[in-house]
Amino acid sequence: MVEQSTIWQAMDAAHHLHPFVDNGALAREGARMVTRAEGVYIWDAEGRQYLDAFAGLWCVNLGYGRPELAEAAARQMNELPYYNLFFKSSNVPAARLAQTLAELAPAHINHVFFTNSGSEANDTVFRMVRYFWALKGHPDKKVIIGRQNGYHGSTVAGASLGGMKSMHRQGGLPVPGVEHIRQPYWYDEGGDLSQDEFGLLAARALEEKILELGADNVAAFIAEPIQGAGGIIIPPSTYWPEIQRIVQKYDVLLVADEVICGFGRTGEWFGCDYFNIHADLMPIAKGLSSGYLPIGGVMVADHIAETLKQAGEEFSHGFTYSGHPVCAAVALENLRILKEERIIEQVRSQTAPYLQMQLQTLADHPLVGQIRGVGMLAAIELVADKHSRRRYDGNGRVGALCRDLALKQGLILRATGDTMLISPPLTITRDEINILVERAGQALDATQAALE
Ligand code: PLP
Hints:
43% of the residues lie in helices and 16% in strands. By secondary structure, it is an alpha/beta fold.
């Protein structure tokens, strides 16, 4: 097995450039070749098993190995493997999925525009909000405001709307017409303010930015209900109501990026349901198909959909694989299982409270500054000093160490800086949560020992 793995690693190192990695270092070390998965576990080519506490990339909501999804794909492949949605065509799975999504979304959202990914969903947002305002007779309402350390994908528009400095540095982003405000990250930036005071302060940065730019120039504000890649940053309870007040006052569209929060991650269908956010657009992807096939979209509020329908011309936007029938059939099956097995209710009432309670048993660990979570999302802050919330020097060195030591314990965690991120499949059981927390504790101990 080791020999076979080495052959695959060499092939990969010689010819494959990976996303979000130092490709030189990866080629020297060899990639972890993941060969199979079942439930919450994955196995590498050398036969090692890992509990995937990250659900792939926040996406395998149903867990791995559901045969129903494979069967749905095979059925649809045999019936209609492909047809496009351009030029007044449609296909049955795409139409059924659109209807199902409209039923699940908040009442004022009844349309979807399909894409293949979350990034493409946010590219669609970029074009749709500007087009919407032009149709409304406000062609100057163009600027989109995002947040520092937000993540909205990796395409030019997605990376521009996001506020990741490392992404902006490469390729001269953001593109013109995108601005960023501070994030509601109380733990790192809240200082001596209470969480509620800080939440208001962070939200009011939006009002200041709108006034600086002029409301007549601002098209939309985009934000994740809970920032995912930035560090599972859960805004204080004062944040979203204040944002809602501001966008309403200045007639600015609100885009809630549901790519991570959607489809049960918070214990509700959408992050908007959890925080009671009234969004105009909701980009979706990931959990829509539990990652079994690529599919995303933008959920569109009625007033925007009606404006597009009354435009009297085509919306010149779309993708060859928008509403791909096989991806749509798999997404439908995924949603059917989430609904019929009452998985989201189970998360809300049983497994998420248990996960959050068990994780708190690690809170006294000397390395841990804070453990926070909502639903099946949780973050562990690693600090040099618990009381002052002082970080270790070294730009994420401790987080990366902890992530690597967790792998040795058979646990996949992700690190953003020195924040450890947890986002397991929604189907994780109590016994598996116990294993997750035990291994996370071992990884923290090993990290502590390595730092001494
Ligand atoms: N939006 C959010 C909130 C995300 O977390 C991601 C991916 O992690 C994206 C958009 C981009 O999605 P994709 O990687 O499918 O393009």
